[in-house]
Amino acid sequence: MNSSDRPKPLEQHSHHRPDKATIILAGALEVFTTRGYSAASMDRIAAAAGVSKSTLYSYFQDKEGLFVEVIQQLTQNNRQRVFGLLTNPDLQAPPDVVLRQIATSVLKEFSENQQLSTLMRLIIGESERFPDLAKTFVREIQKPLLEQLGLYLASQTQLNLPDPIVTARVFSGSLVHYLIIQNVLHGHEIVPLERDRMVAGLVHLITAKTTPEKP
Questions:
Q1: Which terminal residue of the chain has fewer beta carbons within 10 Å of its beta carbon, N or C?
Q2: May I ask the CATH architecture of the domain 17-61?
Q3: Which residue spans of the chain are classified as CATH 1.10.357?
Q4: In this predicted model, what pLDDT tens digit does every residue of 98-130 receive, in sequence order?
């Protein structure tokens, strides 16, 4: 694994030296990302964090509890950033402009933000083993996006959408599907699709009735 591919350490909001728990969580994130949950061990996590096993166990009793804490930290760190993707665009602009900005921002953030990419991979890979964590991801990351997008689409009556909530699901689901195929499943070489083309086509599907066709 190249150094540039390593997961970004969990964010610190203090200028002080990271405490032992934070160091352990950063080491655990690296091991869970590179090895997966099943192949991860407390020995490997201790080595990655540069602490003794006794120190590791004094903070976290088992691998399961450590994994839960890593996912919760990643989710909390990125919740506001994701929510901001829907509040940054100029909502007074035409719907096709707003939706294009939102779609581009979501794809860019999930593709370039290493923590979000790591979070998505871990949640998908371990959702059966940790259903409550998967629900937390949906509740904290996906639900706010869907709710705000649904409210926005409902306010744009000129789009004549029969069900803005369903349209919000289609819009969001298309972006998630694109990210999973292109990034998580490494399908960018098998089914290549440029991001701008994906965004343009998706926005057109939703706004075609109100956006004039170019001559």
A1: C
A2: Orthogonal Bundle (1.10)
A3: 63-208
A4: 999 999 988 988 888 887 888 888 888 899 999
**Angle at alpha carbon of residue 119, lines to 68 and 179, rounded to 5°:** 150
Start-end ranges of CATH 1.10.10.60 in the chain? 17-61
Residue with tokens 């794809």: 107
Burial of 13 from C-beta contacts in 10 A (0-12 / 13-18 / 19+): exposed
- In terms of residues, how long is the chain? 215
- The model's pTM is 0.77
| CATH 1.10.357 for the 63-208 domain, yes or no | yes
| Backbone φ/ψ region at 36: left (φ over 0), alpha (ψ -120 to 50), beta | left
